[in-house]
Structure formats: structure tokens, C-alpha cells
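WARN  no MSA supplied for this record, continuing single-sequence
INFO  ligand: pyridoxal-5'-phosphate
INFO  echoing inputs
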Amino acid sequence: MRPIPYGRQQIAPADLEAVMQTLQSDFLTQGPKVEEFEKKFAEYIGCKYAVAVANGTAALHLCTLALGVNQDSRVITTPITFAASANCVLYAGGQVHFADIDPETALLDLEKVRVLLESKPKGYFSGLIPVDFAGYPLDLEAYRQLADEYGLWIIEDACHAPGGYFVDSAGVKQNCGNGNYADLAIFSFHPVKHIATGEGGMITTNNPELYQKLLLLRTHGITKNPELLHENHGGWYYEMQALGYNYRMPDMLCALGISQLDRADAGLHARQAIARRYDAAFAPEKKIKILNPLAYASGKTPAHIFHAYHLYIILVQYRKELYDYLRENEILTQVHYIPVPSMPYYKELGWQKGDFPLAENYYAHCLSLPMFPSLTEEDQQYVIDKILAWVQRQTN
Ligand SMILES: *Cc1c(COP(=O)(O)O)cnc(C)c1O
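INFO  complex generated
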């Protein structure tokens, strides 16, 4: 199907059926599908608690509120992410700081974070928001060690990585977002993500106190739970105990999420197969650098990583020319991401060109190729052929 986008959702007959059933039920906002989706998602990720919310950005906002971010908070995130990973700190009144990326993975570089932490007195920073960028899992065990040295919390932005995992030093498989090392993790169900519900998001955690706070903040700070009430005037009685928001995910979208979750593993394997074909096609081509080639396709990527492949990214010298050429050929690639601190809004906050040279250099060359489970082998071959034909025409 042309044009070929970089990402596309897949809606199956079972999804339509699930949404129809919920539309005909008594619940459009908070109904039984919300809890069912939360339970199934928590099982899939392997964590204790999951809280469904309006979208990934709302998830990030609630996480910063639950962790008590305020005007005294300084939080470190990566320049190569979607703006929301940084904005959520500002929503809660805190300050955002960035550390540069590891050019090999394009993930926030833990050593750069360490240097930044060491440059200030202990207690200066309060938290970290690293991102499993493109679906490549963070080494959260190492992050936790550093965070503990400095008394920091961690929000893992796992929007790109449901189903991804790393194996920790004890040999235990740690799914992205499972809450064993990070305090909180967040996911998005935007149509380009693994699980698509239109708008939708999820927060995962193993921390019961944070879980209770998130439930409260998701619905206006209001609770009806008899165990939490200060007083109780009768069956109608509720209390607003915190300044919360309406960040609920509707029942019908949770029904869609449940149906999509049933196919999540199939989608992951399709993504892996697509990545393997790209890797094989581009590995011999010196003018293409593959970001994070598959573990078993190269000796470089550690074998204890399972890449969830939200994005398949290559780096080329003449990126704009390749982007335009592919567009003329009905292949709609994308660039992930323009460094957040280079946005006009963040520049006004004091960030300057040259602050994060590795992120800027990455941005100058990166290109996200079509990567979604319903991409046919034929369409993928067309993409590969066009890219190779273009690259081979370059003289230097
Ligand atoms: C998609 C995304 C978000 C925001 O999710 P929405 O559901 O669109 O609000 C946040 N962080 C990252 C890394 C994302 O990719």
C-alpha cells in the first residue's frame, strides 16, 4: 500500500468487536474494561500495579506529581526524545536539565548523567527520566545504582518499548517498565506505538504508595474508597483529597487496548523480522550506519538485550536528500527526534546550540524507516531497494 509510512496501526476485526461491545454496554468512561486492561497490562509487563490514563503525556504528568516534583525540583532527561518526556517536569513547576546521548545507542548516556550529578552538590537533582529510545532497553540496573548514590527517583519513559527487556547481572530478564529498578514507568497507546488505542497511556509501578497517589490524581484527586475517607456521610459521599485532573482512559479504548494486547507478542516478532531484513540489507553498505543492529546479527549489540523496535533508525551523511528522495517515491520516513533543548521554547529557558553535540550530530543524520507489523515483505523490499539505489549513487 502506497504511500508507506514509518508507522501504522493495525486494527483487527476482534478490535472492532471489542469496541462495539463496550459501546453497547452501560460504561463509556470508567467501566470494567479499565481494570481488566490494567490487570492484563501489568501481567504482560510483569509489574504489580498499572494505572490507565488519557495518554502518555498525562502519564508523565501524573508521575511527576506523584513523586512530588515542585519548584525546587531539578530533573535530568535526554535531549533525544519526544518533548513530553521533558515537559512533564515543567508542568509540575520543576526545572529540566539534559545530559548528552551515547552515540552508539542514542540513549541518555549514564556516564554523562554521572558527570552532571558530580558537578553539583548532592541533593541538587531529584530525579531522572531516561527513555528506552526506539525500543532499545535501558540498563536500568546501572541507572538504579547511580540514582541510589544520589538519592534520585527514576521515571522510565518506556513508550517505545513494551515487550523489550534486558537481562540484569543476576541473569534475570527485566521487562521494560516492570518497576524492578525504576520507581515508575509510562507507556503510550498513540497509533504509531506498539499498542494503539488512539489516545491512551499507562503507568506501571511496584510501589503501593505511588499507586494509590496515581489513582487519586487521575480522577480530580477524588476518592470514594471507604478506607481512605476522612469522614463518611453515606453512600453518596466522596472526598477531594488532592488537586488532581481528569486523566481517565475511557472504557471503550481500554477494550481496544485489551484486544490489541492479545496480539502484542505477534507484533513484536513481526518487528524483529523486519529489523533482521533491514540489518541484512544494510550491513554491507558502508554509507549506512544502523543504529543498534539486532543482537544476533552483529557482535556489537550485547546479546542480553531484546529490542522492541518501535523505530528502525539508520544514519546517513545526506539525510535530507535521502528523506526527500524517499518521499518522491512514496516512502514517508521520519526523524526522531529534533533535540528537545534546541526547540525555541527550551532555548528561551537558556539551552544553546552546542550544549549537546552528540545529540545534534545524531539528529543531523538519523532517519526512521517504515517499521510496523503489517509492513509486507514486498513493500519492505521496495524501501530497501530505493535506499540502496540512492546510497550507491552517492560518490563520497
Ligand atoms: C509517544 C510518546 C510520548 C507521549 O505519549 P502520548 O500518548 O502521545 O501523549 C512520550 N514519550 C515518548 C518517548 C513517546 O514516544
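The mean pLDDT is 95.
INFO  checksum written, moving to next record
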